[in-house]
Design brief:
There is one protein chain. The longest helix has 28 residues, at 2-29. The chain has helices spanning 2-29, 42-53, 69-74, 77-86, 101-114, 139-143, 152-158, 174-177, 179-187, 189-198, 227-234, 240-255, 259-262, 270-285, 309-326, 357-376; strands spanning 63-67, 91-93, 120-125, 293-296, 330-333. The chain has a five-stranded parallel β-sheet, sandwiched between helices. By secondary structure, it is mainly alpha-helical. The protein is built from 16 helices and five strands.
Length: 382
């Protein structure tokens, strides 16, 4: 008996830490850390979005806009909300900076649980977002507060766990994804708690129907070619944000394979097959009564300065056009919307990615009638 008791104590010593870790993991998955999360983090943005969508004053949502910072700034959400309201509908903007297909999948699953009445909506990204199946492990921070059992498949397929990649551990373990935020909290507890105390008690759900603004334009720098980045990098006082974007553009274009040539192969390379098949599957499985309107957002010509980039655009269309033809989506391709502008569209963009208010208004004059026809005046599927 003494030997058995000794063995049980040993087992308890081994199991106790594992049990504690499991309980902590469950607590983090249930959102115990969310009230203390850094507001300016990717997870903080998702938490604010959750709070607005779950505001009791927002009893019903009919349509949503999902996507990255491109539609966040480049689509007029106030005009869309007003147009929807004129038909008796509620259309909420749920676009967030950094969103890619994994975020869209996880957020859609979360919305199905909390607002199953949603009829349809807009998915707005750019051709760049159809080049690869994943946009990086940073996106795990965005989806962490939105995880549901039904949304896990899009984490595993878009950013799968890889034991050799430490950043991928957040795909399976909530505690791991929150580790840096927890570490930052304990390094600066007073400042974090002060920010928490100053945060509004009630979520501002009106933000779901308003526009985010970017001021200024690119006419001092240009948007037509990589010479614009040469000018930005040569200017000591150029904004740090533009220099960072130029680094991203140059790195992306230098590393980008020739999609036009790769698309001619039969079969196409595996990474392209995975991207195509996952995107089509995700759009076909979207649980909305109405087909989503997929909008390819405008991109300045600088993104197509590399000879390979024309194939990039065509590859995105190769993925989406069959879905449009079969009725699974409605495709609106606005990629080259500003290409014919006399000033190279410099007056319509605030930076290399995002339209300013002028560019947003120009796009919406063309886009809104199409959205009205495909969403608010269209019948839902049986």
């Amino acid at each position: 008996m003494r030997r058995i008791a000794h063995m049980m104590r040993k087992i308890a010593i081994v199991l106790a830490p594992l049990l504690l870790l499991a309980l902590i993991e469950i607590a983090f998955r249930l959102g115990v850390w969310e009230p203390l999360a850094a507001a300016q983090s990717h997870a903080g943005a998702s938490i604010r979005l959750k709070q607005r969508v779950l505001d009791p004053s927002l009893a019903k949502i009919d349509f949503v806009t999902l996507g990255s910072s491109r539609p966040e700034y480049g689509i007029d959400h106030a005009r869309i909300a007003a147009e929807a309201k004129s038909h008796g509908y509620i259309h909420a903007n749920l676009s967030m900076a950094g969103s890619h297909w994994m975020t869209i999948g996880v957020l859609s699953a979360w919305l199905h649980e909390h607002h199953p009445e949603i009829r349809g909506g807009i998915i707005a990204l750019a051709v760049q977002d159809l080049a690869w199946k994943s946009n990086g492990y940073y996106e795990l921070g965005i989806v962490q507060p939105l995880r549901t059992p039904s949304g896990e498949q899009w984490i595993e397929t878009r950013n799968p766990f890889d034991r050799t990649q430490i950043d991928s551990y957040g795909s399976r373990f909530a505690l791991f994804e929150w580790r840096e935020d927890v570490r930052d909290f304990f390094a600066h507890p007073i400042s974090r708690l002060n920010l928490w105390r100053k945060s509004p008690d009630k979520p501002d759900s009106n933000r779901l129907f308003e526009n985010s603004e970017l001021t200024g334009d690119m006419c001092h720098w240009g948007l037509n070619s990589l010479d614009a980045c040469a000018r930005v990098n040569a200017e000591p006082d150029a904004p740090a944000g533009l220099k960072n974007q130029c680094s991203q553009i140059i790195e992306t274009l230098n590393e980008m394979p020739d999609y036009a040539e790769l698309a001619k192969q039969n079969p196409v390379p595996q990474f392209m097959q995975e991207t195509r098949d996952l995107t089509r599957r995700q759009l076909r499985e979207l649980d909305w009564p109405m087909p989503p309107v997929v909008v390819l957002m405008p991109m300045p010509k600088i993104w197509f300065s590399n000879a390979h980039a024309s194939g990039w655009h065509q590859w995105a269309l190769d993925i989406l056009q069959p879905l449009d033809a079969e009725g699974s989506i409605h495709l609106i391709d606005a990629t080259t919307f500003f290409d014919d502008q006399v000033d190279g569209a410099c007056s319509e963009f605030a930076d290399f990615y995002h339209q300013n208010a002028k560019g947003r208004a120009a796009l919406m004059d063309s886009l809104l009638p199409k959205l009205d026809l495909r969403l608010y005046q269209a019948p839902a599927k049986d």
